[in-house]
Specification:
The complex is a heterodimer of chains A (about 450) and B (about 280).
Chain A: H1 6-9, H2 22-30, H3 50-58, H4 62-72, H5 76-82, H6 89-92, H7 95-98, H8 104-118, E1 132-136, H9 140-151, E2 155-159, H10 168-171, H11 180-193, E3 196-198, H12 209-215, E4 219-222, E5 228-229, E6 242-244, H13 245-254, E7 272-276, H14 280-291, E8 296-300, H15 312-321, E9 324-326, E10 329-336, E11 342-355, E12 361-365, E13 371-374, E14 377-380, E15 384-385, H16 389-393, E16 419-421, H17 424-427, H18 432-452
Chain B: E1 2-11, E2 14-20, H1 22-27, E3 33-37, E4 45-48, E5 51-53, E6 58-64, H2 68-74, E7 81-82, E8 84-89, E9 100-106, H3 110-122, E10 126-133, H4 142-148, E11 151-156, E12 163-164, H5 168-175, E13 180-184, H6 187-199, E14 204-207, E15 223-226, E16 229-232, H7 233-236, E17 239-241, H8 247-254, H9 258-270
Parallel strand pairs in B: 9-10, 9-13, 10-11, 11-12, 13-14
Antiparallel strand pairs in B: 1-2, 1-7, 2-6, 3-4, 3-8, 5-6, 14-17, 15-16
Helix pairs in contact in B: 2-9
The structure holds flavin-adenine dinucleotide (2 copies), iron/sulfur cluster (2 copies) and FE2/S2 (inorganic) cluster.
Amino acid sequence: MPKQKPEIRKHNFNEVALGYTADQAVAEAERCLQCPKPQCVSGCPVEIEIPDFIRLIKERQFDEAVKEVKRRNSLPAICGRVCPQEEQCQQQCVMGKAGEPINIGRLERFVADYEMNRGTSTISKQEPTGKKVAVVGAGPAGLTAAAELVKLGHEVVIFEALHKPGGVLIYGIPEFRLPKRIVAAEADYVKRLGASIETNALIGRLFTIPELLVNRFDAVFVGTGAGLPQFLKLPGENLGGIYSANEFLIRVNLMKSYAFPEYDTPIRIGKKVAVIGAGNVAMDSARSALRLGADTVYIVYRRSKAEMPARAEEVENAEEEGIIFKLLTNPTKFFGDEKGWVKHMECIEMQLGETDESGRRRPSPVEGSEFLMDVDTVIIAVGRTPNPIIQRTTKGLETTKWGTIKAEEETGKTSLPGVYAGGDIVTGEATVIKAMGAGKKAARAIHQYLASQK
Amino acid sequence: MYKIITKQELAAKIKLLEVNAPDIAAKAKPGQFIILVVDETGERIPLTIADYNIVKGTVTFIFNEVGKTTKQLGSLNEGDSIVNIAGPLGVPSEIKKFGRVLCVGGGVMIAPLHLQVKALREAGNDVTTVIGARGEDLLIFEQKMKKVSNKVYIVTDDGSRGFKGFDFLKELLKAESFQRAIVMGPVIMMETVSEISKSFNIPTMVTVTPIMVDGMGMCGVCRVTVGGETKFACIDGPEFDGHQVDFEELVKRQRLFLPEERLSSMFWEKLGGGCHRER
Ligand SMILES: Cc1cc2nc3c(=O)[nH]c(=O)nc-3n(C[C@H](O)[C@H](O)[C@H](O)COP(=O)(O)OP(=O)(O)OC[C@H]3O[C@@H](n4cnc5c(N)ncnc54)[C@H](O)[C@@H]3O)c2cc1C
Ligand SMILES: Cc1cc2nc3c(=O)[nH]c(=O)nc-3n(C[C@H](O)[C@H](O)[C@H](O)COP(=O)(O)OP(=O)(O)OC[C@H]3O[C@@H](n4cnc5c(N)ncnc54)[C@H](O)[C@@H]3O)c2cc1C
Ligand code: SF4
Ligand code: SF4
Ligand code: FES
């Protein structure tokens, strides 16, 4: 797929991957073998009928192709862009055994963008059931659950704490990977289906879950995500210039501080930036820092390249743009200047030992190998834990020792009757498509529950 | 959209806005705050809830015009709207019968303190209030405080009214006993009062006001060190034990974006600064 050239894109926030033209999409679709027992479908958490929609692209019936995709996935423009396809649908594709798998994600993106650009989406209305469901959180889990529930004829209100819907899609994943107009259009689609979205509504404070159930709703779905940033608990961590990845990305994406001062929210990026961690969040932070004008951006990671949790494609993009990988390195201490701004980071070299429970080799420090790095900005991207407010304010809602909500995998059912949950709030940090899959399963279970409630 | 019902100027650059927000009014409690965004390109800023009226469905906050956003907010008039207000946020203050309570407020924070004093009185406490400002002309809520407190003392930095500075507190605490102290105001004031109250072993709660972005536990910019542990002011606070807060770090972290804030403010003034809207 065509991409913006690295030397150009590292100075702008425009989308990196440019998308297929119609001819390119048809050519890619023609490579598909239309397997009678398609392996690809088993790799997709929402079970899109992949060969069917690809055949429709081949026949240039793009409108029909989108309909086919949307039967299973209400947010295809997003999944086509951010799904880790190489571990899901594309990993299973038979064409991948001998050569390159069909680029299913890019084809999905193509049809979704085709529809969005033409504004053709059609919406069919259902007989109302008279039941009302509250959805808490407008991330992928909540938006999907809401879309499924309105399609089944229930009245749905989504409560979102921030001032815009989308969850991580709007506040976390940067513009150059997922343009915000696409997230807005997908949220708008859910609204046009008939769900309403109330922003600025922090559930647990504005209304509690029991209040929602007593006063206004017959069931509740909780999709509040894992947004609480973790820190390293190292000396000097509260110095200026040390951001959590979430703070950094919220400022840049949700608040658009790359356009400061037209937008009011400031961000300060120095010349030498160190990003701690090597997941998708770290790659997004590093590449954003570069675009905000940093001279040198390091990824500092305590294991080796093989263990990096980020998607291969994103690591490759980061390397192309000139991000420097400092592997087998771990920070130990931060030092600041007289104004309280970070100036140096002390690190220690690491070595890999035995394999641990997670199947990765355990890193341990090399004694006496401490060294100083000059840095003026540090972004900490070492993981996020569940948003805690619902758990703290809902009596009887069972949680795990990691702070996630306990819910049945197949239904999202929690310990409280009528309360369902799914997405990162249940699994801990996962993926967009898994959150959507959970939203969908919970919607089905809620539908059954409501039917049983006469 | 949240419509402005009442606007008042209480002192130079100190303004009050009462806005229509019935859901927030129904849930607000003393010690909580809201986060607002003035317009489409605005930043999220926190302000403490100074009053609420369940019947009218309104929430009131009082602010100092210090930078771009608060100046812009101050340029709005009755009938105008604010695009986003989220709240109530933060853990409500603990209101119960403590016995004799000392409430100390400085600057704009006297207004939300008033709400606490009222609630503490209703809970059966005997409340002595100290209110302070830089000078007499900046002192707000004096009459209101007198109505709800058992006793009121006044302090100014320049001595233009009442006591000059907080040294008199030592004498007061020697003479009278208190079971709890509540302090809301500038960091330096909270630090000074906490130091004094510590030497008299009075449990003291302070309201910290670090920089915030989301106000919902998602960014960590509001982190403060309390008793050696990192806390998020927006979801663990904003009230903490004043004898445990690292005030020096708090002040440094409040100033992180000073150069950018000045730029933003200059940019706003250059564009007309909303002067055309002033009556
Ligand atoms: C920077 C970054 C990059 C990522 N990149 C990828 C990627 O490329 N591919 C991929 O598949 N996954 C990626 N992920 C992970 C993916 O985004 C998440 O797994 C997914 O968004 C989880 O969806 P969710 O709906 O469960 O939660 P979220 O997206 O977190 O949404 C939760 C929503 O609930 C709201 N909320 C929280 N508490 C309350 C409350 N009390 N009341 C009301 N609302 C509340 C929040 O404001 C938020 O909008 C990335 C994550 C990050 C942070
Ligand atoms: C929980 C909480 C409650 C608050 N309640 C009130 C209130 O009731 N009334 C009120 O007037 N203010 C209150 N504040 C402070 C208020 O949020 C800031 O004054 C406001 O964000 C400034 O925005 P600005 O764009 O106008 O100024 P900026 O341009 O952002 O800043 C201008 C000046 O104000 C200082 N400043 C910025 N943010 C803060 C802050 N959070 N605390 C102290 N100084 C700051 C800066 O250092 C700078 O000198 C509260 C803050 C918090 C965290
Ligand atoms: S939703 Fe994701 S996993 Fe499913 S087909 Fe699309 S890209 Fe593949
Ligand atoms: S497995 Fe690959 S080739 Fe076979 S149907 Fe699926 S996408 Fe086409
Ligand atoms: S303001 Fe973002 S976590 Fe508190």
